[in-house]
C-alpha cells in the first residue's frame, strides 16, 4: 500500500480582500528509500541465433565438410568470421552456389560441428582431447574469441613441473603424493625477459649444465640421485602426445604455444637423453627441431651427453651423415663447456673430422680454456656468442 500523501494549503496574504485565484495546493511526497544500495541481478540467455543452428528452414547455404552437411546462414557466418565473409563475397564464384565445400583435416572435420555451434551460440565446452583441432579451425577462420580460449587450454596442457628427485623415487616406491612446482619458460635462446602468464617462476637449486670443469661433478645417468634433496628434475605434462607437440612446433604460428611446446618437448627429450634412451623421441626428430632444441639456452643438460645424443641422431639415417647436416647440429654443441679430457675425446671423433668447421670450433674451445684469463681484447671479442655462453638453468 503506497504511503499517504499530505496536502498543505498556503495562507492568503491579500489583507482581507478576497483572493481571486485559488491558493496553490502543494503535495508533499514522503521521503523515498535510497535505491543505490539495492542489489542488481544480471540475466543472460543464449542468443536467438542458436535456434537457427543446422536448421534447414531459413538456411541459405550448406557447408559440406567431409561426409557431413551443415545448414547455415550467410549473414551469421560473415558476421562471425572475416574469412567466411570473403568466401561468401559476390566476387567469388562459389558465393552464388547453394553449397560451400570446405577442405579440412580429418581431426578438424570431427570437431567442425562444435566449431559451427560456437558461431551460432557463443558458447562451447573445451576439452584437451579435441582443443587442438578446434584451435586450428579458429585460427583458419579467424574466430578470435574461440582462438584465445583454445590458447589458454593448450598452454595449460603443456606445463613443465620442477620436481625434487627424491620425491620422485619415494613416490614410485611407496606411492606417496606430492605437489610439483610449475617451471618457467620465460627464458629463451635470445635471453628475452618476456614472461609467460601460464607459468610460475621457480628457482632451480642445482643447474643441469655449467661451464668449465664443473661438468665432471654431474652424476652418471641412471645412478641414484635420491640422496641429494636439492636436485630437481623437469617433468613435462603428457596431456598431449609427442606427435601433437611436434605438430604444434611445426605448424602453429602462435608464439606462446610455440614457446610452451618447445619447453615441453625439451623436458621429455632431456630426461630420456640422461637415461641414454635416444630411440623414443630424439632419433625421430627432424633436423630443424634438433637444431632448435640444442640452440635453446634452457636445454640445461651436460654438454658431453648432448654431444653423444647428437652423434646417435646422425647415425640413425644415412641421409643425415652429410657435412651440411653435421655442421648444422654439431655446430650447436657448446664445446667450451666440455672438460679438457672430453675435448680431447671429441677432437678424435669421426663425425668431427668430417667437418673442418667443427674442428675449428673445438680448437677455439681449447684456446679459450687455456688462455681465457690472459688473452687480448681481440680474442675476448672473438670468444663471445652463444658458443661460449653457459646454458642457463631456470631462474
Uncertain segments of ≥5 residues (pLDDT<50)?
Answer: 167-179, 186-228
Within the largest sheet, what's the order of strands?
Answer: 4-3-5
* Residue fraction in strands: 5-15%
Assign an overall shape: elongated
Mean pLDDT: 79
Give the terminus-to-terminus CA distance.
69 Å
What proportion of the residues is helical, as a percent range?
Answer: 25-40%
Largest sheet: 3 strands, mixed
Count of strand segments = 8
Please write the string of helix (H) and strand (E) elements.
EEEEHHEHHHHEHEEHHHHHHHHH
Gyration radius, rounded? 34 Å
Structural class: mainly alpha
Outline the structure in words.
This protein is mainly α and 395 residues long. The protein is 40% helix and 9% strand. It has helices at 74-80, 82-87, 106-110, 112-121, 131-140, 144-157, 165-174, 242-251, 255-274, 287-295, 303-316, 323-330, 340-347, 350-353, 356-371, 377-382; strands spanning 6-9, 25-28, 61-65, 68-72, 99-102, 160-164, 181-182, 232-236. The strands form 3 sheets. A 3-stranded mixed sheet has the order 4-3-5. A 3-stranded antiparallel sheet has the order 7-6-8. The chain has a two-stranded antiparallel sheet with strand order 1-2. β3 and β4 form a beta hairpin. α5 (131-140) runs antiparallel to α6, α8 (242-251) packs across α9 and α13 runs antiparallel to α15. Mean pLDDT is 79; it is low at 167-179 and 186-228.
Amino acid at each position: 500500500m503506497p504511503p499517504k500523501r499530505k496536502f498543505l494549503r498556503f495562507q492568503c496574504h491579500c489583507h482581507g480582500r478576497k483572493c481571486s485565484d485559488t491558493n496553490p495546493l502543494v503535495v508533499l511526497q514522503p521521503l523515498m528509500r535510497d535505491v543505490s544500495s539495492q542489489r542488481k541481478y544480471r540475466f543472460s540467455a543464449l542468443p536467438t541465433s542458436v535456434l537457427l543452428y543446422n536448421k534447414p528452414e531459413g538456411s541459405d547455404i550448406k557447408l559440406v565438410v567431409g561426409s557431413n552437411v551443415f545448414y547455415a546462414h550467410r549473414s551469421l557466418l560473415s558476421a562471425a568470421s572475416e574469412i567466411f565473409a570473403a568466401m561468401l563475397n559476390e566476387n567469388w564464384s562459389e558465393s552464388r552456389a547453394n553449397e560451400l565445400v570446405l577442405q579440412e583435416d580429418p581431426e578438424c572435420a570431427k570437431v567442425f560441428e562444435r566449431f559451427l555451434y560456437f558461431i551460432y551460440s557463443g558458447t562451447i565446452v573445451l576439452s584437451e582431447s579435441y582443443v587442438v583441432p578446434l584451435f586450428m579451425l579458429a585460427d583458419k577462420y579467424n574466430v578470435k574469441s574461440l582462438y584465445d580460449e583454445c590458447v589458454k587450454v593448450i598452454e595449460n596442457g603443456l606445463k613443465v613441473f620442477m620436481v625434487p628427485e627424491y620425491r620422485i623415487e619415494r613416490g614410485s616406491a611407496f606411492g606417496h603424493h606430492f605437489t610439483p612446482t610449475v617451471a618457467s619458460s620465460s627464458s629463451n635462446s635470445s635471453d628475452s625477459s618476456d614472461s609467460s602468464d601460464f607459468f610460475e617462476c621457480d628457482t632451480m637449486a642445482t643447474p643441469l649444465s655449467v661451464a668449465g670443469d664443473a661438468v665432471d661433478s654431474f652424476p652418471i645417468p641412471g645412478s641414484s640421485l635420491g640422496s641429494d634433496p636439492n636436485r630437481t628434475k623437469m617433468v613435462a605434462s603428457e596431456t598431449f602426445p609427442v606427435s601433437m607437440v611436434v605438430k604444434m612446433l611445426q605448424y602453429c604460428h602462435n608464439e606462446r604455444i610455440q614457446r610452451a611446446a618447445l619447453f615441453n618437448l625439451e623436458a621429455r627429450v632431456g630426461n630420456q637423453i640422461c637415461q641414454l634412451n635416444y630411440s623414443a623421441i630424439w632419433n625421430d626428430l627432424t633436423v630443424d627441431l634438433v637444431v632448435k632444441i640444442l640452440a635453446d639456452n634452457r636445454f640445461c643438460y651436460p654438454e658431453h651427453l648432448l654431444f653423444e645424443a647428437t652423434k646417435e641422431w646422425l647415425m640413425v639415417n644415412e641421409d643425415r651423415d652429410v657435412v651440411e647436416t653435421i655442421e648444422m647440429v654439431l655446430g650447436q654443441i657448446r664445446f667450451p663447456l666440455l672438460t679438457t679430457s672430453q675435448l680431447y675425446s671429441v677432437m678424435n671423433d669421426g663425425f668431427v673430422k668430417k667437418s673442418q668447421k667443427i674442428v675449428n670450433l673445438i680448437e677455439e674451445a681449447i684456446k679459450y680454456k687455456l688462455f681465457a684469463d690472459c688473452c687480448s681484447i681481440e680474442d675476448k671479442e672473438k670468444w663471445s656468442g652463444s658458443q661460449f655462453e653457459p646454458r642457463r638453468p631456470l631462474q
